[in-house]
Amino acid sequence: MAQSEGTLRDAAGLEALISRAAAQGKGLPPVEKWNPDFCGDLDMEIKADGTWFYMGTPIGRAPLVRLFSTVLRRDADGKTYLVTPVEKVGIRVEDAPFLGVELNVSGEGGDQVMTFRTNVGDIVEANAGNPLRFVIDPANGGLKPYVLVRGRLEALLARPVMYELVSHGEDIVVGGKSMFAVRSGGTVFPIMPSGELEEQSL
């Protein structure tokens, strides 16, 4: 893929930049506040299963993947970037940038809370600010649940997590219509009309 002159030449250089950005403070870097120049695309891709590739090769170092994940940003143009105070490079994302790999459910009824862990260590409580959304995969008719992690970045829930989530579903009247839905953080998240559940390929 063609890259501009200013594009970082290798992942090691990018890692160094990110390390300096992350070292400025504790917690996640404030990527939403940064507005650096776009420097081209990097030959990096996040596959649907959460595996990161650089120049066609899987990135096997989990700490490096976690580091990269802290400076991900999805902009209003629908594209995903790695962003530092001085560099903004585009990467490819096959589905969602994160994968939800674990679910913890606490409380019951209106007090129920669903908390997810992603493949890169994010902990996310599903609520009005971090909603769940559900789509039907046009390829196979299967259910694909997502949870908003931060900004515009979502995690696709792994199939075992999806099955566990669905096991907590119940029929709830939403807008005068009976929906199969789940509750979390004081919010009801409709999955599908109750009558369609038996027809659905999970």
UniProtKB/TrEMBL annotation:
Pfam families hit by this protein: DUF1285_C, DUF1285_N
Domain DUF1285: 29-96, 97-191
Entry protein name: DUF1285 domain-containing protein
Organism: Phyllobacterium myrsinacearum
